[in-house]
Amino acid sequence: MRYRSTWGNATIINTELIANNVMKIQLTPENGVKNFTVGSHIDVSILINGVTEIRSYSLVGQYQQKKPYTIAVKRLPSSRGGSNYMWSLKKGNQIKISQPTNHFELKYNANDYLLIAGGIGITPILGMAEQLCSRKDISLRMLYLGKNKEEMPFTEHLKTLLGDRLELHYSDESGYFDVNKLNTLANNQTHIYLCGPLLLMNSVRKAWEANPFENTHLHFETFGASGLFAPQNFKVKIPRFNKELVVGENQTLLQALEEEDLEIMYDCKKGECGLCQVNVIEYTGDIDHRDLFFSEEEKSKNSKMCACVSRVANGHVVIDTAYRSNI
Amino acid sequence: MTKNTTTFTMNESFPMNAWYAVAWDVELKHELLPRTICNKPLVLYRKNDGTPVVLEDACWHRLLPLSKGKLRGDTVVCGYHGLEFNNEGQCTYMPSQETINPSACVRSYPAVEKYRFIWVWMGDPAVADNSKIPDMHWNNDPEWAGDGKMIEVKCNYRLVVDNLMDLTHETFVHAGSIGDRNVAEAPFDVHYDEHTATVTRWMKGIKPPPFWHGQLNKIIKHDDLVDRWQIIKFEAPCTVNIDVGVAIAGTGAPEGDRSQGVNGYVLNTITPSTNQTCYYFWAFSRNYNLKDQSNTTELKNGVASIFAQDEDILEAQQRAINTNPTREFYNLNIDAGAMWARRITDKMIENENQD
């Protein structure tokens, strides 16, 4: 459900390194902590190179009366500036945040749940595990995937909550998780709640669709910032406007086009709504589709891309926007 | 608790973590039925297998009420752009695109059919517990017979609870049927616990009012004095079941032997719709003359005309509250049951710490 954001000041009351490259940040809003459901996030207004941008962070854990909001931020080498800004925050600093909203609601009426978290995708999943673990009327399993122990926060807490219902998988030790194992972890009754990097999400979705499982039982949330390739600069040509520009590695195609005053329609800015799609006339290298809007088949044609999240790796792209002069 | 009594007149709040009746069993079909409960627009329907579904009545996309659309199988099709939602509220179709936005859904609410009503849980679904559905078993118990109706009343639900918790009003609102001077003059006892409040009134050795004289004579020829009882039981936040009846005077009814009498239950559950409207579900069940269908119809029509008198009073009271916004109620001895009912409901709301 989408709600209009109402913004207010919040004070950082604690920051703590809880795993390699993962900072836990606790904050209290000026106008009081609002009740939220698991899977919720807050929007944070951040300043990058003097420009205000919005980032979304999942709320960690369940709502507790009078307890501050907790988020966990991973520092990414490929950050568009968001994680650097969040990491610079110190106790006592003030930031602007929205009220919690939920785009990843946990349905209460399933009887079999499989939670899958990849890396920092643990943040919305943790509260779900907390909420579901004590329910006697359901079966629950959780899969938590990451590079290695040191990079994965909350593992001890999860072990206490879930015991042998938790499976930890370290790719440094055992390589990528084999998604075909979903067959043994899930059945037709299973509802999956999945959050993690795009690569994981895509492979789980593919494996899920290859099984006779209900598509509507797969629930996921992405965080729009991961792809098949590490972000890099790429050149964009727009012949209609006789323009050529470079999208910086910390910038999106949408931002770069707007900086050149080329208007693009957009809404979600996380690759879900499809409004920001541009036509691809030609390209070299690879188009790194990071959206959830286009189907696999559409992506493979490489004739359109979502400007808000998708990128080009090792090449350039020639695009056209929706503008057509009537003159 | 002083806070509650000072806001007594205008307290329009209601708990969310509670089961509320949304429809009679016969009202809900395999078609879309809109109802607003606790200020939330809902759309209700039965699946093909008969189980009830309650969804938020606003499309995820542009908020058109889904009740303006149609059902295809168990799927709701929005009447504007054809987005489709399954009975769990999950979006299963979006026009002109090959994928579906992962966050697309409408809220679904726990719904249960019990005691001939469809019940919905408006609050946190994680704590929805079917055992908390108020006991209204008389409504479909084979030892009892009866039927009822739903009326939409333009007043806050608490005013209806007040009305039912104090039956002295029968003397004045329902004179000539169930009300006479004996009700207004008989003493009563009030008891409460964490979730219920009970008002017990025995009128011993009285001449029965016309309604009860008629009912008793369906099974026993008796034109003399009776012992009459009214045992009003409130179950938070808005259910009031009233154990009523008469027995031949002196045959032991107050001590527990009701064999020389007739017993009915006036079943009431009042669901907040908006702050100043409610759905009032009621039924009258009896434990005598069970196979006489005309008795069922007669009682249903009789109670309906009695409750129409209440409806008139309650709506006028709500209007008077609105035109006297700075005024507070006075409370009398007779209001003790209503006061306990309000306090128990207020505590439920406080415990929820609604934001």
Poorly predicted segments of chain B: 1-6
Which shape of chain A, going by the Cα principal axes?
globular
Which H/E pattern describes the elements of chain B? HEEEEEEEEEEEEHHHEEHEEEEHH
Might you state the CATH topology name of the largest domain in chain B? Naphthalene 1,2-dioxygenase Alpha Subunit, Chain A, domain 1
Largest sheet of chain B: 7 strands, antiparallel
Which fold does the CATH topology of the largest domain in chain A refer to?
Answer: Rossmann fold
Which CATH class of the largest domain in chain B applies here?
Alpha Beta
What name goes with the CATH superfamily of the largest domain in chain A?
A: Nucleotide-binding domain of ferredoxin-NADP reductase (FNR) module
What's the number of domains of chain A?
Answer: 3
| Major pleated sheet of chain A | 7 strands, antiparallel
* Count of alpha and pi helical runs of chain A: 8
- If you average the pLDDT of chain B, what whole number results? 93
Q: How many domain regions of chain B?
A: 2
What is the tally of beta strands of chain A?
Answer: 19
Q: First CA to last CA of chain A: what distance?
A: 41 Å
Number of strands of chain B: 18
* CATH architecture descriptor text of the largest domain in chain A: 3-Layer(aba) Sandwich
Radius of gyration of chain B: 22 Å
Named at the architecture level, the CATH assignment of the largest domain in chain B is Alpha-Beta Complex
Alpha-beta content class of chain A: alpha/beta
Query: What distance lies between the first and last C-alpha atoms of chain B, to the nearest angstrom?
Result: 20 Å
